## 1
Amino acid sequence: MARKLIVCVGIFLSLLTGFMFLDQRDDNELSNKGPGVLNVQQSDMDEVETAEFIPFGSREYVRIVPQ
């Protein structure tokens, strides 16, 4: 029983440290604006008119809007 516990804790700790290492590496690449980071240009056509916004009704998950 103790052997299984040691193996499980070892696997857990190795996965945890591996993912922490990858997360730290990913944060460093984003701060340096490394490869794979794209700047998105937004235009006026992307804005939604808020005057015509009607909140969803009860159990209304998708709304079809006529064009």
## 2
Amino acid sequence: MNNQWKWLLRLGTLLLVMIILYVWMKLSPFWTPMLRIILTVSIPFFISVFITYLLHPVVEYTHNRGLPRPIAILIIYLLFFGGIGFVGYKGIPVIIDQLWELSENFPRLAQTYSDWIKQIHTSTSSWPDGIHERVDQTFSEFEEMLSSLLVKVIAGLKGLLNSFFILIVIPFIVFYLLKDYDQVKKTVWYLTPRKWRKPGMAFLHDVDQSLGSYIRGQLTVCLIIGVLATLSLWLTGMRYPLVLGVIIGVTNVIPYFGPVIGAFPAIIIAATISVKMVLLVVVIIFGLQFIEGNILSPLIVGKSLHIHPVLIILALLIGGEVAGVLGLILAVPVFAVLKVTITHISSHFIKH
């Protein structure tokens, strides 16, 4: 009899949850605008917390070297946001000019790409029907993905301009978070239920050990690769060096697949100039990857993730399937956090 009551209670609870979810979805026209406002207001805080997380170890390192903490915070703060401001002031007009010139030459680039597709289609026509169709399908999917990506980039730039006055508060939030970092930690500690404090601190410590140095190192490597790519392409006389350098630097954050994605636009543009330029671009890309793989990553990133390459590739495939390019960028960090989470949950159940 007791078992029957337990099952009835569980079914009743499940039914109640489903009714609540149904009513909640029906009321979505009322709470969706409020949720959108909350998300818009929360974005600067999330970005500020992330920047604080990146800068705090640098502040602590400088402070431990004997510099007073307020002075260390001010120097790192001014260098970081001053550098971003200077690069934006000098770089954004150049990027806009190069993007404008690129848009004017887009028909020529599209024709080059179309000629490539025709050549590939002709050269694979003698292959078995299934393989030939799969090649055509792959290029069609790539074109759709590229078109969707361009639409998202344009929408993102418009959204960034619309949110300018909200994003301008980020430097102020970061300054106060860096200044009152210890007080923020104490506040979070006292707001956390007592039984979750030690496990939570251990979990965050392991996440930081696994992910923190990887993120900071990877961003540093991407910045260096982007600068080297821009300078190399500019010295060889390649068109749109800053735009292509930014693309190469940003896509470099994606392990294994990033260099291929970043190299593709540069090679297409080089093909509209000359065969010699294509060879130069290929040499530059291979040279950058050699520097990144043999010097920068081992020196700056190291083996902080402790994740097997096969698992990283699996995470990238899943991330790309779920969320496209954004999924590729976030796949490894999310996988690292999941790995730490599963480890802590497993150890918790073993103890109990």
## 3
Amino acid sequence: MIKKLHLQGSAKEIGFCHGSKGKQEVMNSLETYERLFYGFKNISWSEAKELALLHLNAIEKYDLQMVEEMEGIANGAGVDFEDILTLNARSEIALTNKGDIYSDGCTTMAITSPIINDTIIGQTWDWTATQKNSLLLLDIQAKSKPRISMVTEGGIIGKIGFNSAGVGLCFNALIADKRTNEIPLHLGTRAVLNSYSQAEAISKVANGQIAASASFLIGYDDGNGNGMAVNPEVSPFGIDYVGGDEGWLAHTNHICSEILKKKLKDLNELRFEDSILRKKRADQLIKASIATKESINEKTFERWLSDTFNKPSSINHFQNKNAPEHRRMETIFSIIINLSKRRAFLRIGQEGKFEEIDTMTEVTL
């Protein structure tokens, strides 16, 4: 089960409800990342907060309401603002040069025109098992913004989901050697989900605005039968689109852009035996379905995201006991989003059924 929170009002009101009603999930996140930062980075929580504060000036210029929402979460959960800021900058802190570099993983996929009429995106999210207890399903209605349905970790204001305008986001972490003090990745994901179009979404993560590197698979359906998915790899040096020219996309956790490779060094030490193999397997599954003229829909995505070929380093990921401890990830959740129909399906863990998450019609905000 995943806790659902319906949030509305001002940024501070949205944050306060998140923090108060999701307090246990926020506390779980704080415990997880304090342990990870110390165990793998040799960074104390106070040091992590200092690193997070380096981003504050950029965030205030980027979107002051994000600061207000994080303040609201802190007030609601009874913790310091810096604690919540640190959760939202956790990817950038994980990518410091001190200690072992680590980051979460996943496999993302998209199918759109001309292969099918709908635009469908989906992914697994692979991470440390303890964060299963931190998951929240947020239904957010902020003033003058689209309504958002998003799966996130307690205390983190941006992650994976879609909005009422037809913009959807799947997300892959990339591990590179350079970062800045600009906008943390998870705030970039929220900016995408605050957008009314694909073009607006791209403008929020382009031009070196984002502090670290990641793959943003951004789908969009305008509600009139027109849809498209694009996959910009985002970096402090700007973006580059990869794949997608034939109506399908797949991405994992290594840099694909030849342009970005000239500016960044890929530090994913398991890219050859994990990330690249998952990407090749995702490509293979999609190509096989296209070649056999299979009718591709949400059920097809369920099969793809449940694939255990090359287990434990499969699309549906299991812990690899032979990997370094900080890379022993497993699939925490999998999500399928049909942007044309404004509906999504979620599975927590590696087994069981995908259940529809109908947050936007359950409650009228």
## 4
Amino acid sequence: MIVGHLLFTYFTPEKISGMWTELTPDVLYYVLGGFIAQMIDGALGMAYGVTATTFLLSVGITPAAASASVHASEVFTSGVSGYMHLKFGNVNSKLFKTLVIPGIIGAILGAYLLSSLEEYAGYIKPIVSIYTLILGGIIIKKALVKRIQKKPTKRLGILALFGAYLDSIGGGGWGPIVSSTLIASGRHPKYTIGSVNLTEFFVSLASSITFFTVIGLGYWQVILGLILGGVIAAPIAAKLANKIPVKTMMILVGLVVIIVSIRQIVLGAPKFF
């Protein structure tokens, strides 16, 4: 209902007609980015945000615009995913209620901070790239290291706040941070993934509304491209998910994210000197 209200409020027939005339060939780059990110996410169940953000940063999109676009597209993908998990009984209601409010607060804080510092985009981009570099390492570690049973994680609200905050700033990381931590702590993977995915819808929605309130809808082509690319890739990724070795794919994804992130750090380093 919330998403529908926003769509009908901002995308009137007149606005859609005007946006169509402004469409440029650059949208194809964003379609490619959405396609690649969704193919990876469909195979791994994670890394959509970090992959899409890394791609957008590499083609010159500012950190705030990249994160805003990724979260706007994730509103649709996480909404469907969360609903299906809820429908199939994969959601732990207690865990969901514990994560959702801190997650929303963290998303709003991260999005507002990143949007407010838009004029410092040249400095923020290498910092965000350092974060995506770390996430690339986490993805590789997740592929190589076997899960070790640990004591149940406490202070789940702080974990959700921190994960959503970094997710808004970096354009990705909610799944790798929150899901990985909870599963590694001994929680049941099925209910952890379902609860975290359902919470992600509210995190992405809160982040998107904050971004659009501060920086507007000037990057609608990026959002459109990511959504179109993701829609095209979704059925393909679903079919390939059981055929591609997940461990190999995760290592490759981590390496690509690390390489591209290092490139962004090197290009942005002169601004600090």
